[in-house]
Amino acid sequence: MIKKILKYITFILIILSIITIYLAYIGIETNKFNHLIQDEISKNNKDINIKLKNIKILLNLKNFSVNLKTKDPILVLNEKDLKLDYIKTNVSINSLIKEKFLIENLKILTKEVQLKDILSISFKYKSNPQLYILKKIIKDGYMVADIDLNFNREGKILDNYKIDGFVKRGQLKWLKKHSIENLNFDFQIKRKEYFLKNLNAEYKKVKFLSESIKIKDNNKFFEVEGNLKNTLDKSNAEILKLFTNNYFENLDIKSLDLTSDNKFSFKINKKFKFFDFNVKSKLNLNKLIYNSNSLQLKNIIPEYENKIEFQNHKIDIFFNKEKLTIKGIGKFVINKDLDQLEYKIINNNNNYDFETKINFRSNSIFFDFLDYKKEKNTESLLSLKGSFKKNKKLVLKEIIFNEKKNEFLIENLFLDKNFIFNKVNLIKFNYINSNKLKNQIIIKRNKNNYNLKSENFDATKLVDNMINSPGKNDLLDLVDNFNSKIKFNIDKAYLDKKTYLKNVNGLLVFSQSKLYKLDLKSKFPNNKDFRMTVNTNNNNEKVTTLFSGYAKPLVKKYKFIKGFEEGLLDFYSVKKNNISNSKLRIYDFKLKEVSALTKILTLASLQGIADLLTGEGIRFSDFEMIFSNKNQLMTIEEIYSIGPAISIMMEGYVEKNKLVSLRGTLVPATTINKFVGSLPIVGNILVGKKTGEGVFGVSFKIKGPPKDLKTTVNPIKTLTPRFITRTLEKIKKN
After folding, report:
1. pLDDT one-digit tens code per residue, 386-439
2. Final residue before a domain boundary, out of 61, 80, 111
3. Which pTM does this prediction carry?
4. Residue 346, SS3?
């Protein structure tokens, strides 16, 4: 009997073991638990229902529970179907025995689900502004999620839930202008924490990559931190406008190679308002080539051809609400000449402080108004320090340029918001110019006025500009509402390489950036006087006077006069509304090697006088020129010069750098003497006894571009009454 019982028990145990093993490793499928699971899920979530197929049951001996798994279920949220791959759960055997079916854990794997469907379901389940905004901007994409949920005894989801998954081919659009394409990333969601990994997307054809982004829900706002990498080339140049307020709008970018590695953090509230931005970026600007006609660098860098190339720039950027810091170093190329640039910009509460160092070696530098040039392949350093407040003044606290023994220093240069000069505290120049002359200049501000002192100053370029471009002053074009007095004292002011003025003293007065008054006195080393005045009268006319007891240094500035000796110069001019009327007189001088005059004399068969001109020279007792200037046009009313050998009268006009048109009369001394000897019968000379009679001279014309003048001569002409009248006036005065 006992043996039968033992056999029976053993048989039962074997059967149970087989069943247990079968249930543990193979399991069974049934639909008996479907309603229990459905009831349990929807018990505390009335808007949630689930459609199940057969459930596979596996015994879990370790936890004394059973694992339940169903394939291809459908989750119904607010009457919206969401297709799943599977649902798994673990149910204690004890709850089954007690007929208290309790789900402690639920694992759900979704199939590919459209993002728009997820949002639609979520929006029906819980409506808020964030979901509404997301629904508007999400246009495409799908996701797969692996959901792990744990429940308490009341059937509510515990805080230790976990959701893993990925998003593919996402598309976001907002404001009709902005679009993110091909958005892909892996994600993990925990309680109040969201992790995005391996993110990649395209914005305005720029590819962005991110290794990780962390989002933390702080109840009132979200904290976001992560990294972002991207690469830019020429085809992506449009994106630069987003970060430069369209400063690059007119730039023609020829080439661009830029990579960036950015670490960022910010906060965003429930209304999608961003704040507390922090960005750390490392930029590698491998190459940037752009064209720009707006940069006026040609006057400073002669090799500049409207193109600059930046190479191998390493740039560090730090940005937050209160401060922006940019540090960079790299190379720049102008017309194949490579130099180095280093810069630092700090923005603190709308105040920009900046430092820049430019090592110029390969490129030449030219300061026209100083007549200074740094040759190529010589070391030099330009340092700038300054500050700028948005929509207000720019202050260049320090400008230093050093090259060999040449030094240029400017301290506290104030510019307005349009970069127009306002005032400066100190200017100190010590350099050798293109004439190999040493220049030493110190300008100091004293309240609203200035003192200028100099041991040596080469004014050659200044005088040349006054002669070639009368009334033009490029420096004053850079000055806005300048109202100051400049008192100057210069020991030596050179007019050319050899000739100088000594003890130049005077006063400059400016009103509204215009020269209002000038009073200058000096002497040549030979003690000849030099005086110049500018005064503005009540009619707003600017009256200029100039007297030089030594005319040669000023006259020889005119290139068509090869030789000039002796003489006194007297100049008077009245200017108003950009029109000047002037009179220039020169007394007791001698001319040599004047090419135009030599040609006229030769063509008129006055070879003897021509030889005299090229030899010891032709003396003149008086030269007078009456002319006017308007813009680029000089109208010559009259040029009259009388001398023992010849007398000349001319008129015409000169259009700067375009056209010269002059006509005149030349009379040799023999004719003049004949005329003077016939003074008792002036009337007969003026009109002649009969048609065709009178005093004979030479008429001529000079016309053409300045570099290709054509001269014509008519050796037979009756003198005009005007010539005779002017000659009589001169003879009478003398």
Report:
1. 998 766 778 999 999 999 889 999 999 988 777 777 889 999 999 999 889 999
2. 111
3. 0.72
4. strand
